[in-house]
Amino acid sequence: MNNEDTTLKAPVSGWEWVLRVAVVGSVAALLWEFVTAGQLITYNLNALPLHYGGAFAVHVATGVQTLAAAMVWFAGGRGRGTDRTIVLVSLAAFVLGFPQAALGTYGPLQAHVPLSLLLVALVVWSVVLVFRRR
After folding, report:
1. Quick one: which H or E segment has residue 12?
2. Which residues of the chain have pLDDT under 70?
3. Under a CB-based contact definition with an 8 Å cutoff, are residues 133 and 105 in contact?
4. Closest Cα partner for 69 from 44, 102, 94, 49?
């Protein structure tokens, strides 16, 4: 006897593919930010433009993620459930990225770093939701 789940899954739509690529892109951009931040902590100021550019990549990736999540949710009838949660978490990550980045440029790092950890938590949460959705 085979104990595997034999239920058929619906094919992944175009917006679902965009959403998957966007969440992976958001994680990649955040990993880039961690690497360049580590260089800045070791006083390698050559990493500053790389870290600054990475912030733009985070904004673009989380923005595309939010747009794709909204399109998936709208296509599904805008009901409650995982799709709506993905939109809300993605939107929170997108919005949080702006004050978090501004604090890195103009504010105290004591606020920039904890907000970056919250941003990472939101993006990782969205990745889990996206790849676990049915």
Report:
1. none
2. 1-11, 134
3. no
4. 94
